[in-house]
Specification:
Elements lengths: L1 H14 L17 H19 L5 H7 L10 H30 L1 H20 L4 H14 L2 H11 L6 H5 L2 H19 L2 H4 L8 H5 L3 H21 L7 H13 L7 E6 L4 E4 L1 H4 L13 H6 L7 H29 L11 H30 L1 H10 L1 H16 L3 H18 L1 H13 L6 H33 L6 H16 L7 E4 L2
Antiparallel strand pairs: 1-2, 1-3
Helix pairs in contact: 2-5, 2-7, 2-9, 2-12, 3-4, 4-5, 4-6, 4-22, 5-6, 5-7, 5-12, 7-22, 9-12, 9-17, 16-19, 16-21, 16-22, 16-23, 17-20, 18-21, 19-20, 19-23, 22-23
Length: 509
């Protein structure tokens, strides 16, 4: 029967006018909705607690007196606060991924959520610069969930539905960012905003940014409880794996078959012929013991893993620079080329962007991936970063001359371009997970990607905020040098993206 199907497939290939492979396309496996929803809920607090500080971090830095009253120096210290979180995370996140390969995904996820909760509460009680630094470092050290969640999502899906599953990740990120920006902007310094109610409590006078932090911590606590009760462990036990190995040896020697996603502009075809064959024909030969596979970290240091991981790091750098420049430029006075927005306005603008971004990503990514394929879609969407950075000086020019309508129009263009650029994340995550040599190394692969991403996110805020401050202090290109430098970096990365593979190959492990 299998030979008949293969012969039929060969006949169809010969009859194709374009000489392209015409492959079977079975119905996709239904998504495990409950477990996927829990994982998205787990992912959200990381973005929420990371972004809740953005609307007020520049005001917080100035209130500590560390800048000596010079507004132009704010970028140096705000960038340090934002960078340290990712710097410490870079040191620990790979280890969290490897630990999850050993003890399971769920325990690591629970520890991460607990760490996020404690650290953001500590941040809310920080009113001196050194306390702020320690709280941010603790948050980075205790949270290793992003890579572990991606590994879990890969384990609960297959080649037919993995793209749809990962398309939901930007919604979780967008929801977290939306809530973070909104909570940070609206609830910061409540005693000044509502003196007749909240202003009666001395706590909020002494700690003006405690309220948004405690609200963010409550969301993280809720996610922890849901995870504890309802999340199922996705990683098979060692005993189960050993039984699987024994079964494979007894039923040998069928070769392992791969499901390859061939993306073409006209159509997306998924070669899942092996999935249509009898399950008795499919076995997973094991060349070495599971323990040595787990511990051999060198197995992921291959081009198929390293090229997507490097691109993930570069994307993280550019995205973090954009995320830092938005509140920094928006809060800077108009005389210095900024927009002069309050923390309220910054929070609302960024929360609207996040909300729209999450919804659009879920709807558009699978369709765009279907049409363009992973590589073309990655390149096209990454190019939109050129628009996001180049609109900053134009907005500053219009704000300085009080051209309000034009300024808001360009701001809307920037936000739309940033949504388009964000599609790159879903593409590169598929590449990273696709590159993992086997599922035993999936956590380590994602941990490596997250480690490099965290390193680049640590470097990004310091570099871009320092360039921002230097551009203003030295009046480089009228104070806009930082934006054109970022555009140049984007163009260089676009040139490097040609090394990404054109197709994704998913192998049953």
């Amino acid at each position: 029967m299998a030979q008949i199907r293969r012969a039929s497939q060969t006949s169809e290939e010969k009859q194709s006018s374009e000489g392209e492979l015409i492959e079977a396309a079975p119905l996709p496996t239904p998504l495990p909705k409950t477990q996927l929803a829990i994982l998205l809920l787990v992912q959200m607090p990381e973005q929420l607690t990371a972004s809740v500080i953005y609307p007020f971090v520049n005001q917080l830095v100035r209130s500590t007196g560390i800048t000596g009253g010079d507004e132009r120096k704010t970028g140096y210290y705000a960038g340090l606060i934002e960078s340290l979180y990712y710097a410490v995370e870079a040191v620990t996140i790979l280890q969290w991924g490897r630990v999850s390969d050993r003890i399971g995904r769920k325990p690591v996820i629970l520890v991460g959520l607990f760490g996020v909760t404690l650290s953001i509460i500590s941040f809310g009680f920080s009113n001196q610069f050194w306390m702020i630094i320690l709280s941010r470092c603790a948050q980075g050290a205790l949270n290793g969930n992003m890579g572990v969640v991606k590994s879990t999502m890969t384990e609960i899906t297959d080649a037919s539905n993995v793209a749809r599953a990962f398309a939901w990740l930007p919604l979780a990120w967008g929801t977290g960012y939306t809530l973070g920006f909104l909570i940070g902007g609206v609830l910061s310094d409540p005693a000044e905003k509502w003196p007749n109610s909240v202003g009666h409590y001395p706590l909020f006078h002494r700690y003006p940014y405690f309220l948004p932090c405690i609200v963010a911590a409550s969301v993280s606590t809720f996610s922890w409880l849901i995870t504890l009760v309802f999340l199922k462990e996705s990683m098979r036990s060692t005993a189960s794996k050993n039984r699987s190995v024994s079964h494979s040896d007894n039923t040998k020697k069928s070769p392992m078959r791969a499901a390859t996603m061939h993306y073409k502009p006209e159509d997306t075809r998924i070669d899942t012929l092996s999935h249509m064959l009898d399950e008795a024909e499919i076995a997973s030969p094991v060349a070495c013991s599971l323990e040595s596979t787990r511990t051999d970290f060198r197995a992921i240091l291959i081009p198929g893993v390293m090229i997507p991981v490097l691109h993930y790091g570069l994307l993280s750098f550019v995205d973090q620079c954009m995320l830092v420049l938005m509140p920094l430029m928006y809060s800077t006075s108009r005389s210095l080329g900024g927009l002069g927005f309050s923390s309220n306005t910054i929070g609302l603008v960024m929360s609207v962007w996040s909300m729209l971004n999450g919804m659009i990503q879920v709807y558009m990514f699978p369709r765009l991936l279907h049409k363009f394929g992973p590589k073309r879609l990655y390149i096209i969407s990454f190019a939109f970063f050129l628009i996001t950075f180049s609109t900053f000086p134009l907005m500053g020019y219009m704000a300085k001359r009080e051209m309000e309508a034009g300024m808001w129009l360009i701001l809307c263009v920037q936000l739309v371009a940033y949504i388009a650029a964000y599609i790159t994340y879903s593409c590169i995550i598929l590449y990273v997970n696709n590159g993992a040599p086997n599922k035993d190394l999936l956590g380590a692969t994602n941990g490596l990607a997250q480690m490099l991403g965290s390193v680049m996110r640590a470097v990004g805020p310091t570099v871009v905020s320092s360039l921002f401050a230097l551009s203003l202090e030295k009046d480089l290109l009228g104070g806009t040098a930082v934006y054109w430098i970022m555009c140049t970096i984007v163009m260089v990365i676009l040139g490097c993206s040609t090394y990404l593979p054109k197709t994704l190959t998913w192998t049953s492990l």
